[in-house]
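Narrative of activities, Objective 1.

The group set out to show that a structural description can be obtained from nothing but a protein's sequence at a throughput compatible with the screening campaign. Below is one input-output pair from the validation batch, recorded exactly as produced.
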Amino acid sequence: MTQLTQDALVERLAAIVGTDKVRTDADSLETFGKDWTRIYEPQPSAIVFPKTTEQVQQIVLLANEAGLALVPSGGRTGLSAGAMAANGEVVVSFDYMNQISEFSAVDRTVKCGAGVITEQLQTYAEEQGLFYPVDFASAGSSQIGGNISTNAGGIKVIRYGMTRDWVAGLTVVTGKGDIVRLNKDLLKNNTGYDMRHLFIGGEGTLGFVTEATMRLARPPKNLTVLVLGVPEMAAIMNVLHKFQSGIDLTAFEFFSDKALNKVLARGDVQAPFETETEFYALLEFEAETDAKMDVAMQLFEVCMEEGWVFDGVISQNETQAANLWRLREDISETISHWTPYKNDLSVIVSKVPEFLQEVEAVVVREYPDFEIVWFGHIGDGNLHLNILKPDEMPKEEFFERCAGVSRWVFEITEKYDGSVSAEHGVGMTKKPYLHYSRSAAEIGYMKAMKAAFDPNNVMNPGKVIDMD
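Output recorded for this entry:
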């Protein structure tokens, strides 16, 4: 195996992508060597910007030859350190692989380079009279390749599913340096193993996604938002069940009073109504007709009569709908001031109330000085637990104490047959806790797949699983 000096490394990479597409300056190493997590310090050796699948292949072949470790970099919006380069890795950025091509109105598909921004695809779909439904707060900066590699979910999963439900075909470069085109964009293809689904959610550990054919949908009509004040978590589940019995929801979100108060304190948005409750639910649905709106109002009245809802407000136009969504979508940015320790958990929907109650009881009991903020995609069983750092506490001490919290939280998650990572991936931060959601047999098979696709462990090593 060839060992390269730093100068030789840069020279070899430049021979593949061009001198202007390799960076080693301190600012680039800092920027491209990390994601949104703040636990690890970025320490990459170089950043390389390929423009084609073939260039990615050449980089992977060089990595195998020289024993390099590669880390993929998309929009760097991840929350599990899946795109962290903390050990001298070469970062492969897909920023220049951002072309949209081969749109088919008949198939409702479009081909995207891995570096296409999520919002860019959403806008393109809208221009074609169609809709790309996977949506979340980081849509303006996250990239399709990263979304696929983490199987991104977001706010409309209850109606449209996860990213994997919209991937018609993939082009990937495996850890061996093979270019493989998966599924060929077919709707029906029962010819053995569908390997798309190994790379979707694989966090770049088996290979790098370089291109994807994404499916599109018809655009929703007259999306209407309803925000409800709810006295307790069990009541939220009653509201969900009641509304789903009468209309198809496109979103069903929740947030706690603490989350709402943090957002309101910024002064950018107003409270939805005067009544204060412990929890809030945000529902979105298509009000295509007056009859559909009448059904929604009837369901709301039933929830009020049953005592499940204390107050509510409904949007009358797009501007009001967007402002109501901000009550939920502004939470992450708002609480970032407190360097939150995030846990992204899921259980089956019916178990959410008792699960949340049990988790909060443990955290409050053990760490009464920590403030807890809950929100999430409750319609699909996904809860975001955010523990806020006290202003006077050093970051290192805070994260160390939160590690103890995580163990207790994940033990409860295991008890409820849940997942320690609903949509943020495993990366480095969740890797020590993978066994709470995956059996020893499953982890063994995951390692076997990693060895088959990436025998020299050059693709995002140290993420999801360890190969030693």
